[in-house]
Specification:
elongated, 4 helices, nine-stranded mixed β-sheet, two-stranded antiparallel sheet, L,D-transpeptidase catalytic domain-like, alpha+beta
Length: 258
């Protein structure tokens, strides 16, 4: 009996082993593919559920907005149609009273020019009798209190209310810097007559003096006009201040209210 070469025996054996390993890998890959397919299907189902949930949430948000609008409308109904039937009569009575007061004021002023400053709206009105000539945005006192820790003195930054008169006017005025300005800046307060207190250009080109340290003057911060921003004086923009200086002589009455 002849002997079979070793190489011929090894080759079929290797082929059988390779075929078996390939089959095993193919089965494993098939199982993995099936698992991936099932996972993809599950993810698609979850995505569809999320999409449905998102649409439902959007519908709820829109419905909530509509209900809020309805609630606001129902809330406003008492203002449109007041339950108290005397409301409209009261309103008419107030309107009549305002007209009467305006007529009395016009008669008292006898057609004289005067200034009206609405401290709440930060508006200045130039009027002649009951006629409005023109108006301007202004800045009145911003409020608040400054206290000097050393001396205990306090300053309240408000514009006073009431009736005043223009008691003096000036062109290119100098500002005598008050004590509170140094305290606010954290600087030492100089003696009352110290020349360093005199500052130019701070009050604008014109000033109208209302007395007791209160002025109508210009401002370097015109972007703040229409808001309370001053330390108590009434600030006016440059163009309106020039018109005001020309139209309000000494003795002009000034009414400040809120």
């Amino acid at each position: 009996m002849s002997e079979v070469p070793f190489g011929r025996t090894l080759y079929p054996l290797a082929l059988i082993l390779w075929t078996g390993a390939f089959g095993w890998m193919a089965c494993a890959l098939s199982r993995d593919g099936a698992e991936l397919a099932r996972e993809a299907g599950r993810l698609e189902d979850e995505a569809a559920a999320l999409d449905v949930g998102a649409r439902r949430l959007g519908e709820l948000v829109r419905a909530s907005g509509e209900r809020a609008g309805d609630a606001r409308f129902l809330q406003d109904i008492p203002n449109i149609l007041p339950e108290d039937k005397g409301y409209l009569r009261t309103q008419k009575a107030i309107e009549g009273e305002v007209r009467l007061l305006r007529a009395k004021l016009a008669k008292r002023l006898k057609g004289a020019p005067h200034l009206v400053i609405d401290a709440k709206a930060n508006k200045l009105y130039v009027k002649k009798g009951s006629q409005l000539l023109w108006q301007a945005d202004v800045s009145v006192g911003r409020g608040g209190v400054l206290k000097d820790a050393k001396s205990g003195r306090k300053w309240e930054f408000v514009t006073p209310r009431g009736e005043f008169r223009v008691i003096g006017k000036a062109v290119n005025p100098m500002w005598r810097k008050p004590d509170w300005a140094y305290v606010e800046a954290g600087e030492p307060v100089p003696p009352p007559g110290d020349p360093s207190r005199m500052v130019s250009g701070e009050l604008g080109a014109f000033v109208l003096n209302l007395g007791d340290g209160y002025l109508i003057h210009g401002t370097k911060r015109e972007e703040l006009l229409g808001r309370p921003a001053s330390h108590g004086c009434v600030r006016v923009g440059a163009a309106d201040l020039e018109k005001l200086y020309a139209s309000a002589p000494n003795g002009t009455r000034v009414f400040i209210f809120e």
